[in-house]
Amino acid sequence: MATDKQQGGSRAAPPFSARHLDITAFAEAGARLADETVLSHYLRLADVVQDGDQMTPVRWQTQGSMVPVLGGSPEIWLELEAEAELPMQCQRCLEPMRQRLEVSRRFRFVQDEATAEMLDDELEDDVLVISRDFDLQALIEDELLMELPVAPRHEVCPQAPRMQVQTADFREEEAEKPNPFAALEALKKPKS
Ligand SMILES: [Zn+2]
Predict the structure, then answer these.
(1) Which domain, by its residues, includes 134?
(2) Ligand 1 is a single-atom ion; what residues have CB below 5 A from it?
(3) Which one of 43, 93, 128, 129 counts the least CB within 10 Å of its CB?
């Protein structure tokens, strides 16, 4: 008769939500959030892969931290990693393919827009404004969308025209067979 609720009673509700993240509190706690949800939860991304597999997993994790600054207030940072393999159509052979997207970024959070703009020019990392209700999931989606290639393509198309077949397997097979061109060359050789 045990229910899921009775697991030691230590199951506190997660204090941070990806949709409504209190950035300062998250960083002060040095907290970490991670999740794996399906593509259909990311409407804009899902839109890119029309007719694709909406159950494709999207994984991410983020870590907040306060970085001490000598003689100043500590900086607020958030590290983000996200990944997904989206079902797409290869723009070369028009066959389905999986486009791997990987995000690994750091964001610094500051008090206001003016500071953010100023620092954004100086820093390589992105600078965002602190919020008590930050939509981390939207940020994750933004970052993944930015990783999308304009024209996704297989690294090596499985159904390329014969002369250009280049899959690893095929190449191995080819290597074992006598080269047809070599045979042709032999035929063309003038008889001596
Ligand atoms: Zn292709």
Answers:
(1) 23-154
(2) 90, 92-93, 154, 157
(3) 43
